[in-house]
Amino acid sequence: QKEVEQDPGPLSVPEGAIVSLNCTYSNSAFQYFMWYRQYSRKGPELLMYTYSSGNKEDGRFTAQVDKSSKYISLFIRDSQPSDSATYLCAASWYGGSQGNLIFGKGTKLSVKP
Amino acid sequence: DGGITQSPKYLFRKEGQNVTLSCEQNLNHDAMYWYRQDPGQGLRLIYYSQIVNDFQKGDIAEGYSVSREKKESFPLTVTSAQKNPTAFYLCASNPQGLSNYGYTFGSGTRLTVV
Questions:
Q1: How far apart are CA A64 and CA A59, in angstroms?
Q2: Which of residues 11-50 of B touch A (CB under 8 A)?
Q3: C-beta atoms of B48 and A94 within 8 A
Q4: A90 contacts in B (CB within 8 Å)?
């Protein structure tokens, strides 16, 4: 039930690269999927929010959910040094028993100038 | 601007000492949460509260205590029973305690045992 798996990295890419961050999950009841960005020594901030399967785009960021394979992805186009942060995926079912989001452990991304 | 304020930003604790971390929100959110974050371990839930004067233990509540006397405030006390308290502590809130809305986080408190 409490399974969201995420590769911790670290992931290092050159500026301008396309970045792909991924998570898998095991609970088929999950319907809401989120990506949080956390800068060093700061709290996470909600970056992308997706309901059910499909894609959602916001500027350089695209969130993708494939419920058939239980796979969550975040793509960053034209990556910038300011994108260097830890990215956490999270999942929930409607209502969320006891109000708890299930988080992955986070992937640390470094974008080199 | 609405948000969550955590204080202090850095806190040092001596062995055997209790310390309290402050968390205040002006978002009018019903639910509040405390997480502990350690390198490589992700976010671990300590306590959460869905309503004033009520709270539940999370996955790692031992050595911690909380209170929820006001909707806006959810302080966390790290007691001397917590043997390894050095970590980054995050407070979060949610509008109605429904996780599908996502959480708003504070900026965290770094606690170090000296």
A1: 14
A2: 31, 33, 40-43, 45, 48, 50
A3: no
A4: 102
- Side chain identity at residue B9, one-letter code: K
* φ/ψ of residue A3, rounded to 5: -125, 110
Within A1-113, strands assigned E span 4-6, 11-14, 19-25, 32-38, 45-51, 54-58, 61-66, 71-76, 85-92, 102-103, 107-112
> Cα dihedral sign for B72, B21, B83, B45?
positive
Pairing of strands B64-66, A85-92: unpaired
Q: Three-state SS for A97?
A: helix
* Minimal Cβ distance to A99: which of B43, B98, B105: B98
For the stretch B25-45, pLDDT in tens is 999 999 999 999 998 888 999
The string of pLDDT tens digits covering residues A58-74 is: 999 999 999 999 999 99
